[in-house]
From TrEMBL:
Protein name: Acyl-coenzyme A oxidase
Main location per the UniProt record: other
Residue ranges occupied by any Acyl-coenzyme A oxidase N-terminal domain in the UniProt entry: 26-146
Species in which this protein is naturally found: Caenorhabditis auriculariae
Phylogenetic lineage: Eukaryota, Metazoa, Ecdysozoa, Nematoda, Chromadorea
Active site as annotated: E434
Binding site for FAD: T152, G191
Length: 673
């Protein structure tokens, strides 16, 4: 049968092997839960093994030692080699396999095809007519052309209806004239726009006969397909270094009265006829599909970033010994400290929770995508609400978790050798891209306020907001019933979300009744509204976690997930408990119970801590972290890693002769005077 933890190897650091031997579950079976099937988990490992056999696909040196230009070049080099091996390595129609291949070979800092795969192809799939697909999509899929999604401008990202780039229809020539009239109208941020791509789907405000029809998508060729030089009337370039994600050339684009054929507007759902007649789409927001696509997948990418930093932190905490719990005994692994456990374990639970919530979201997304192909749009509002809330809450909590992981590694966490700072920099971009978090929470709030209104009017609401119509207990039953089901916790989360949604609703209604215009009242209630959205979303995450645990069949996996869920529910409830204390739903005695359950959970998780992170099956190649090495041999490799520093190439740097020596000489001369 072998070891339950599949990462055990001879020669590993004994402290980490000791942890792995304690595992109560099979880590590879757990991987099947995380990646949604045993087959998917197997494929990940097969892909990693195959990649390890191709020497040209290995990093030329640790990425933190590369300059920005080298990072861009290195990612492009690997993309080139990957193209040769792609069909042998992965099923190119499987997004998860492609994503994994990217993470192993290139990592999260980006590559020239990042936006091509994540947005350019999806937007063509969803919004191009069959004829347009023949012209661009199939070429894009074969990588004959490389594209991006150019929407955000220097002056506007959140408010799409105020994009300044115009696409004015010229009936006489049957062309659109694309123009960036101001500095602020320049496209600013699109990934890979700067240097890599030769095509873009540009989102511009459609004008026909001087009437504004709002944002629409247009295919624009940016560069010559052979020379890669920008085409006439196009200025394009890189926006400069960012906090992280620097292998990606986020770019700017200025269009100077550029003419494109009428047929370059993506017209699957919406049309502009030759004579300028506008035929509207079945749903006004169908053109937002590429954003919804990314938002729907972001839970899983965030879960992955969070799990990566926790894998690093937990493994390191199992070999790092410092201080004593019992002064008579040797120094302990820092993982023994309750503070360290409290700092890390709840985030492990969140990574699992985000992955399970992510799987449900992707399922809904796939359904809506299929519906949209036939013009069916009924579930679009539900999906938009769900993805808006999740995108905001999950990115924010991921940011918190990664930072805790970094701090938990002490000084070495701050070194790029941990790689956590890079993961952090990449992940927090998610709080901003695909809709700034507050803006998206307020989108969900619109949906919640509609549901609250319906309930107040005596109507029954269903689906994601069904709990607003369901009976509520005045007092939480946590610690009040003999039965220890998660339902009592979930009911308490429901109560908290419901109370906050109606609190925000009542406040809004009061202001509206007092005569305040809707937009002003909305702004004055917006902090309460975002709170409602967060609580609703955190309820969904907890429910998704509970649903998954409920469905698991394997006893040991179920038991291990059950422990994590228990920790999650108690930790999350403590985090939002003030809402339930305010109206007496929870009392002080119950708070004590929840706290003691939390501490009990930490103890229960402790023996499996390394196995919970190992179950993500993140190879050394993809983690790129000295602290997170699978074998636990951190210290000697930290020293080796530092040898890569270019500052170590010579014992004496030129700055000594140039600046430091004169400084010290002059100081010595002065002290002699
Ligand atoms: C395999 C895949 C792996 C994926 C991996 C991910 C890794 C990512 C790596 C790549 C890195 C970065 C990529 C980043 C790319 C970008 O950032 S692209 C740019 C993204 N930009 C945004 O997200 C802009 C945010 N703003 C908006 O989306 C809209 O402006 C906003 C929705 C905020 C408002 O739109 P309006 O048109 O102004 O609409 P409103 O008046 O507010 O609302 C009117 C009604 O419309 C409903 N609505 C809005 N959007 C949708 C939608 N998408 N679907 C359905 N319904 C929608 C809204 O709820 C309102 O309904 P109501 O009137 O209340 O009933
Ligand atoms: C790493 C990265 C990659 C990106 N990639 C792309 C890409 O490939 N393609 C692309 O088109 N774009 C891309 N973007 C741009 C990104 O989508 C936008 O930056 C994002 O949508 C936020 O818009 P903004 O910059 O206009 O923020 P702003 O709206 O200016 O936000 C500033 C502040 O104003 C607040 N605010 C704004 N509006 C409201 C409101 N209505 N109510 C309350 N508060 C409000 C926000 O909450 C925030 O606090 C990328 C950005 C990053 C960071």
């Amino acid at each position: 049968m072998g070891n339950l933890n599949k990462e055990i190897r001879d020669g590993d650091h004994p402290d980490i092997t000791e942890e792995r031997l304690k595992s109560t579950f099979d880590t590879h079976k757990m991987a099947a839960q995380i990646y949604n099937s045993q087959r998917a988990a197997d494929r990940r490992n097969e892909i990693t093994s195959a990649v390890l056999k191709i020497p040209e696909l290995q990093d030329i040196k640790p990425l933190p030692f590369l300059s920005r230009e080298e990072k861009v070049e290195e990612a492009a080099r690997k993309i080139g080699i990957l193209s040769e091996h792609l069909y042998d390595l992965v099923n190119v129609n499987d997004g998860a396999e492609l994503y994994h291949l990217n993470n192993v070979v290139i990592g999260g800092e980006g590559n020239p095809l990042a936006l091509h795969g994540v947005m350019f192809i999806p937007v063509l799939q969803a919004q191009a007519t069959d004829e347009q697909k023949k012209k661009w999509l199939y070429r894009a899929m074969k990588r004959e052309i490389i594209g991006t999604y150019a929407q955000t401008e220097m002056g506007h990202g959140s408010n799409l209806r105020k994009l300044e780039t115009t696409a004015t229809y010229d009936k006489a020539t049957e062309e659109f004239v694309l123009n960036s009239p101001t500095t602020t109208s320049m496209k600013w941020w699109p990934g890979n726009l700067g240097k890599s791509t030769n095509y873009a789907v540009v989102v511009a405000t459609l004008i026909i006969n001087e009437k504004d029809y709002g944002p629409h998508s247009f295919m624009v060729q940016l560069r010559d397909e052979n020379t890669h030089k920008p085409l006439p009337n196009i200025e394009v370039g890189d926006i400069g270094p960012k906090m992280a994600y620097n292998a990606t050339d986020n770019g700017f684009l200025k269009l100077n009265h550029l003419r494109i054929p009428r047929t370059n507007m993506l017209m699957k759902h919406v049309k502009v006829e030759k004579d300028g007649t506008y035929i509207k789409p079945p749903h006004a927001k169908m053109s937002y599909s590429a954003m919804v696509h990314v938002r729907a997948h972001m839970n899983n990418t965030m879960a992955y970033f969070l799990a990566s930093s926790l894998t690093i932190a937990v493994r390191y905490s199992s070999i790092r010994r410092q201080g004593h719990i019992n002064p008579k005994e040797p120094e302990v692994k820092v993982l023994e400290y309750q503070t360290q456990q409290h700092r890390l374990f709840p985030h492990i639970a969140r990574a699992y929770a985000f992955s399970f919530a992510g799987a449900e979201t992707v399922r809904l997304y796939e359904k809506v995508k299929k519906d949209m192909e036939s013009g069916e749009t009924e579930l679009m509002a539900d999906l938009h609400a769900l993805t808006s809330g999740l995108k905001s809450v999950v990115t924010y909590l991921t940011m918190q978790g990664i930072e805790q992981a970094r701090q938990s590694c002490g000084g070495h966490g701050y070194s790029m050798a941990s790689y956590i700072s890079e993961i952090y920099g990449i992940a927090i971009g998610g709080c901003t891209y695909e809709g700034e978090n507050m803006v998206m929470l307020l989108q969900l709030a619109r949906y919640l306020m509609k549901a609250a209104k319906a309930v107040k009017e005596g109507k029954k609401v269903e689906g994601l907001v069904g709990y607003l119509s369901a009976p509520d207990n005045r007092h939480s039953l946590i610690d009040r019933t003999p039965e220890k089901s998660y339902d009592t916790y979930l009911k308490t989360f429901e109560h908290i979300a419901r109370q906050q949604i109606f609190r925000a609703f009542d406040k809004l209604e009061k202001m509206l009744t007092s005569g305040l215009p809707h937009s002003e009242a909305w702004n004055k209630c917006s902090v309460e509204l975002t709170r409602a959205s967060r609580l609703h979303t955190r309820l969904f995450i907890a429910q998704a976690f509970a649903r998954r645990v409920h469905d698991v069949v394997d006893f040991h996996i179920k038991e291990a997930l059950d422990d994590l869920l228990h920790l999650h529910l108690n930790y999350e409830l403590l985090d939002v408990a003030s809402y339930a204390l305010e109206d007496g739903h929870l009392c002080g005695e119950q708070m004590n119970f929840i706290r003691s359950e939390l501490y009990r959970s930490l103890g229960k998780i402790r023996p499996n801590a390394v196995s919970y992170v190992d179950a993500w099956e993140l190879s050394d190649m993809e983690l790129r972290s000295v602290l997170g090495r699978r074998d636990g041999h951190v210290y000697e490799n930290l020293y080796k890693w530092a040898q890569n520093s270019s500052l170590n190439r010579t014992d004496v740097l030129p700055v000594f002769e140039k600046y430091l020596k004169p400084l010290m000489m002059s100081a010595r001369k002065n002290s002699k005077l």
